[in-house]
């Protein structure tokens, strides 16, 4: 393991301190936690608070999206480990300005349980809390015998939508409704070239040979659906796009938002090449995305690979929310 | 019969087992999870040790609650809420009964409710269930329960994404639960 760290067990607290000290204009730390809240308190007055979080190792998620127009607070758990209920609860309290708090949770058993317990604690304090469990990863085919589909890069688009709606004064119920209807239209699929190494573990979560790739890997090195030899960018796009199409037909008369997300170690150069091939293949289907983002948004430490998220903008309002101005580190 | 005193001793013994087997638990977690179960449990037991050290002459309920809060606030992941809920349920019940099997039964019900897992899903439930149901816990009951998870296919948690590939590995949460019950067996006066 070769990483720019001090003690592996202090990775998260030192990262959080580094973040809030580097970007005091966006973030401040909630005392005695690894949770961060928006510094611009005025921007939250009279509005529903939006709280997200999860294990660390997905930077810039989730603290990078805290700021006016997006998240009110974010909680950083240990690396690839859900944060604890007391910390989530502290973030809920900091984000509550009398209109309730909306939680964005990724569908992992740990996240779901810890956020659930935090919700119970907040409700004891008479804070209204609602939530969405994001499960955009289509790699998991059969949810009957698993935890269900995982929450991955599409979560960032969810943050953007609910954050914009909250900033425009939407109620907690309206935000819940928005999140539920949008979720059904967000689909993500990934390909990995190499695995991530959790600092406290010291070795990669899985191994791929030099010329091997794996389709459908999750953001904590969860296994995907197929391994094969590395292919050209064009062929990777074809595989991922066809996989998405099987779940959500791509129609030339629909409007789409696209997120090409780097998993951590893949250079932007490669992400742009992938995007170029993607746009070609969408063009073959007479589709020109109305919104696109390329870059590292939901990473998996130093995993190499990309994920592709396609969001079918069934409701015109959603594009407006995606384009709504924000003040964050990373959007 | 659990008392404040022997429950603290039970936790001391569990702490030592987690400390000794931290790397082994993380290794078990690598092929079917994300390789951090040992580290997470160690952080939790440090939390438990600290909370218990701060108590002065506590009763059983206070001890069980302190264990629960230590685990809930330090472990994270799925294990934190599950172990935490188990001890919280025991804390709620212990004014009524201090019998180990009755307390373990309410703890098991809490784990099942929190995580939604049932017997055969390849989780800690597969150790908690036979232990809670036995009138006399023995090392064999514990060991057999742990071993039974090896041939199961995971249906809950991150291991479930492996499908059939999860078969052939012990469940790390079942193994750490085994340490908890072995520690209980080795603590005088609890049974």
From TrEMBL, chain B:
Entry annotated with the keyword Kinase: yes
Reaction(s) this enzyme catalyzes, per UniProt: dihydroxyacetone + phosphoenolpyruvate = dihydroxyacetone phosphate + pyruvate
Family matches, as Gene3D superfamilies: 1.25.40.340
Domain DhaL: 5-186
Top-rank taxon, per record: Bacteria
Entry-linked InterPro entries: DhaK_L_YcgS, DhaL_dom, DhaL_dom_sf, Dihydroxyacetone_Kinase
GO cellular component terms listed in the entry, alphabetical order: cytosol
Database matches in NCBIfam families: dha_L_ycgS
Role of this protein: ADP-binding subunit of the dihydroxyacetone kinase, which is responsible for the phosphoenolpyruvate (PEP)-dependent phosphorylation of dihydroxyacetone. DhaL-ADP is converted to DhaL-ATP via a phosphoryl group transfer from DhaM and transmits it to dihydroxyacetone binds to DhaK.
Subunit structure: Homodimer. The dihydroxyacetone kinase complex is composed of a homodimer of DhaM, a homodimer of DhaK and the subunit DhaL.
PANTHER family: TRIOKINASE/FMN CYCLASE (PTHR28629), TRIOKINASE_FMN CYCLASE (PTHR28629:SF4)
Name under which the protein is recorded: phosphoenolpyruvate--glycerone phosphotransferase
Organism taxonomic ancestry: Bacteria, Bacillati, Bacillota, Bacilli, Lactobacillales
């Amino acid at each position: 393991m070769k990483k720019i760290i001090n003690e592996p067990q202090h990775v998260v607290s030192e990262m959080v301190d580094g973040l809030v000290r580097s970007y005091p204009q966006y973030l401040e730390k909630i005392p005695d936690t690894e949770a961060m809240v928006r510094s611009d308190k005025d921007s939250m007055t009279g509005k529903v608070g939006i709280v997200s979080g999860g294990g660390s190792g997905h930077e810039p998620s989730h603290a990078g999206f805290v700021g006016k127009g997006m998240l009110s607070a974010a909680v950083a758990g240990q690396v690839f480990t859900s944060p604890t209920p007391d910390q989530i609860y502290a973030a809920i309290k900091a984000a509550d300005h009398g209109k309730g708090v909306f939680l964005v949770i990724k569908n992992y058993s740990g996240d779901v349980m810890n956020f659930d317990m935090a919700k119970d604690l907040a409700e004891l304090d008479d804070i209204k809390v609602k939530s969405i469990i994001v499960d955009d990863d289509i790699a998991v085919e059969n949810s009957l015998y698993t935890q269900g589909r995982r929450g991955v890069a599409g979560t960032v688009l969810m943050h953007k939508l609910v954050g914009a709606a909250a900033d425009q004064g939407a109620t907690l119920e309206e935000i819940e409704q928005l999140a539920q209807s949008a979720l059904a239209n967000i689909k993500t699929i990934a390909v990995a070239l190499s695995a991530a190494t959790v600092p406290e573990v010291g070795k990669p979560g899985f191994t791929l040979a030099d010329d091997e790739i794996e389709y459908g890997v999750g953001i904590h090195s969860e296994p995907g659906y197929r391994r094969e030899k590395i292919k050209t960018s064009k062929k990777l796009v074809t595989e991922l796009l066809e996989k998405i199409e099987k779940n959500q037909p791509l129609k030339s008369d629909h409007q789409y938002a696209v997120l090409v997300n780097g998993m951590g170690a893949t250079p932007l150069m490669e992400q742009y090449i992938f995007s170029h091939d993607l746009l070609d293949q969408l063009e073959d289907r007479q589709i020109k995305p109305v919104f696109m983002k390329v870059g590292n948004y939901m990473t998996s430490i130093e995993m190499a690979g990309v994920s592709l998220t396609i969001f079918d903008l069934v409701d015109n309002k959603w594009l407006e929310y995606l384009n709504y101005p924000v003040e964050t580190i990373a959007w | 019969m659990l008392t404040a005193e022997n429950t603290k001793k039970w936790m001391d013994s569990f702490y030592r087992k987690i400390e000794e087997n931290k790397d082994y638990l993380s290794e078990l977690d690598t092929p079917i999870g994300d390789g951090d179960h040992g580290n997470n449990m160690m952080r939790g037991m440090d939390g438990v040790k600290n909370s218990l050290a701060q108590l002065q002459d506590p009763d059983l309920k206070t001890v069980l609650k302190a264990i629960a809060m230590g685990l809930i606030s330090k472990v994270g992941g799925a294990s934190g809420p599950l172990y935490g809920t188990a001890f919280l349920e025991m804390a709620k019940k212990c004014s009524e009964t201090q019998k180990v099997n009755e307390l373990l039964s309410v703890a098991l019900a809490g784990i099942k409710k929190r995580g939604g897992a049932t017997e055969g899903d390849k989780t800690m439930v597969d150790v908690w269930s036979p232990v809670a149901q036995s009138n006399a816990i023995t090392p064999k009951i514990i060991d057999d329960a742990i071993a039974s998870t090896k041939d199961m296919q995971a249906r809950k948690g991150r291991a479930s994404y492996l499908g059939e590939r999860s078969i052939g590995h012990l469940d790390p949460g079942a193994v750490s639960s085994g340490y908890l019950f072995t520690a209980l067996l080795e603590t005088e006066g609890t049974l």
